Please model this.
Amino acid sequence: MSRRGLSDVVSCGLFLVLFGVLIGFVSQNAAAQEAVDLKAMPKPLLAPVVGHRGHSSIQPENTIPAVLQCVETGAHGCECDLQRSKDGKIVLFHDVKTDRKLRDSDGNKMLGEIVDYDFETLRSSDAGIWKGEQFRGTKIATLDEYLDALKDTDCIPVIELKKPGLVEDVVAAVKARS
Model:
């Protein structure tokens, strides 16, 4: 198996494990439950609808406006991608490179990867202008902001880990909100 293929398998495996953990912690009564009996859960009449990177067809992907739009439209789940900044903050961002989606305060493309920048620099960047002028000023979102935006809604977080080493921190953040 190629290195890329193995990476995809590991990423998919982490996604599935984390999704399973999230299902167990998201419901309002999750704190009182020891385990979730998936067979006892009702089956939807239609396949669940999960917003890809939030509601990315309307809002800049992996941002809080995209998450809120996903909730507003009634999606069953809201998928996001997570990476860690240079100083350890977990942020929502899909691409390996930052130049397609992030602009600095002067409007220049930010070159490199999320891990090349500290959170303060990332937070001061513009994560929306790439999608259109009306999205200028949209900020990069944190894992905590994403989970808080979905808390007390019927929309389940669906998380993809873009880099290794995030599982424990993500599980802790989810548990802290259940």
